[in-house]
Amino acid sequence: MTEMKSSIMVIFGASGDLAHIKIFPALYSLWEDGFFPDKFFIVGFARTDMDDETFRKTVFSALNVNCRKKPISEDEFLNFSKHVFYLTSKYDDGSSYDKLGGFIESKAKEYNISKNVIYYLSTPPSVYINVIDGIKNANLTSYEYKGENFSRIVIEKPFGYDYESAKNLNSKILSVFKEEEVYRIDHYLGKETVQNIFAFRFSNAIFEPIWNNKFIDHIQISSLESIGVGFRAGYFDKAGIIRDMMQNHMMQLLASVAIEPPAIFDADDIRNEKAKLLKSIRPLSLNDVKNFTVRGQYDRGTLDNKPVISYKEEDGIPANSTTDTYVALKLFIDNYRWAGVPFYLRSGKRLKKHKTEIAVYFKKLPYSLYGKDGIEKIKQNSIIITIQPNEGISINFGAKAPGFKVDIEPVNMVFNYKSSFKLTPPDAYERLIYDIILGDQTLFARYDDTLIAWQFITSIINGWSKTETPVFPNYEAGSWGPEEADGLINADGRNWNNA
To answer: Rounded CA gap, 120 and 14, in Å?
Structure first.
């Protein structure tokens, strides 16, 4: 791995859950593994009233719960914590940003460090604009120090609420930062298996030639959770699964598995191909929205032999909520590679199993040497790319079972990260933060990717507003989702991979 440049990271919302659960554990792991330079410091910027020592104690506690390697050595953390500071600040107060600027100035001189500053927005989306305006008005991107400088901004999802709001947010960001300084983070893209999709396709001669509509029957992309909304009720009830998962994670997974080979493995080329792919998704008419999408909301049910409450009974959820906690949709990509191949996407909460996977199903043989019984018994060949929880890839094919009879049975060849490489992959945030400091945008969404995805998803949301809302709840917690979702794929003679 390349050594990272001396840098300063400002974490807005540093006292919040995301910072403590994901960002600081990733930063500490990178530092512990030797990827941070000696000259760096981290500034927490948030409303909670704390001094440096109190903040460091909260970070230490969070690391012992959430870090990949536990327990955390007090001596090692003491060395790390010398680089960690905290400013009690308000997001809508100009003087807070002036104070931040003065702090960066003084600490940069104290550490003898170039003012390479990364602004990480780990805040509620409602304050994004306040933070961007604060950075701009305090001139916090105008650094000149020893001839070397950069400023970058990291934006967490959700990036906007719909197409228009995403467009406005992009305009606001690009009035302060250049596109090459903007990192729209989607943690799915930092997962090893998602990155391995490119290696799987583009470095193996046995797969890329068959990755097209001549051989592939259909592709399923599933991101299923057994948990409910938890502490995110306030945000989730305004967003629903369509905004929380479909617009970002699911569209990025779709683009990763379906893009054309880039000319070179380069951030611009890869993101160019992703934009072309997303542009090729067939727009949905109002009739398509009715026929190709399914909404759901979970009712009471049972998970792990324990009763769970319905969505409307969760803390902070209105009793009359019509927010979707499950969405399934069918779409087509209109280009030469994928013409006629249906893609089925589904995502939801309080489902029977927690898994994120891409299932690629190949066309059945047109003729069987083993007669009618044989062709009916032989399953479709498939490649299952498991992104979580057990990262790996399995290939399903038919083989003759031992014995005197010719009996074809399905078998699996399985690649698993932990067993193959004898190590636990780094957390996605470790890889993404590493790339942010390096300045590598390969695993981050570009502005046009984001807007194209929002345009497609907004057309579904607008279509729903013109159709009758289903009677919610319409699936039990602990099930695989609404019956209508099964009907969506069953109508085409196919089934969801519910293994």
So the answer is: 9
433 neighbors 26 (Cβ within 8 angstroms): yes
Report CA torsion sign: 62, 68, 74, 80.
negative
Rounded to an integer, what distance in angstroms lies between the CA atom of residue 312 and that of residue 318? 6
> Comparing C-alpha atoms, which of 136, 9, 181 is closest to residue 85?
9
The residue written with tokens 């596109």 in the block is 179
Give the DSSP per-residue string, 142-197: ---STT--EEEEEEPSP--SSHHHHHHHHHHHHTTS-GGGEEE--GGGGSHHHHHH
CATH 3.10.20.880 fits 7-156, yes or no: no
C-alpha 73/C-alpha 287 separation (Å) is 59
**pLDDT string in tens for the chain (499-residue length):** 555 678 899 999 999 999 999 999 999 999 998 888 778 899 999 999 999 999 999 999 999 999 988 899 999 999 999 999 999 999 999 999 999 999 999 988 888 888 889 999 999 888 999 999 999 999 998 655 445 678 999 999 888 899 999 999 999 999 999 999 999 998 888 888 888 888 888 889 999 999 999 999 999 999 999 999 988 888 899 999 999 999 999 999 999 999 999 988 888 899 999 999 999 999 999 999 999 999 999 999 999 999 999 999 999 999 999 999 999 999 999 999 999 999 999 999 999 999 999 999 999 877 767 666 555 666 789 999 999 888 889 999 887 788 877 777 788 898 887 777 777 778 889 999 999 998 899 989 999 999 999 999 999 999 999 999 999 999 999 999 999 999 999 999 999 999 8
Q: Are 246 and 327 in contact (CB under 8 A)?
A: yes
What are the residue numbers of the active site? 249
- The gap from C-alpha 444 to its chain's centroid, in whole angstroms, comes to 10
The CATH T-level fold of domain 189-426+447-490 is: Dihydrodipicolinate Reductase; domain 2 (3.30.360)
* Contact between 277 and 261 (Cβ < 8 Å): no
CA distance 459 to 289: 8
Cβ neighbours for 95, distance < 8 A, ≥ 6 positions apart:
none
- Determine the 3-state secondary structure of 405 from DSSP: coil
In this structure, what token pair is assigned to residue 310? 């319905």
For residue 264, give the amino acid letter.
I
**What is the chain's Cα-based Rg?**
24
CA distance 93 to 460: 38
Break the chain into its structural domains and give their ranges.
7-156, 189-426+447-490
Amino acid at 346: R
Place of tokens 């893609």: 343
- H helices of 232-348, in order, are 233-241, 251-258, 267-279, 286-292
Whether the Cβ atoms of residue 290 and residue 467 lie closer than 8 Å to each other = yes
Helix (H) or strand (E) holding 17: helix 17-18
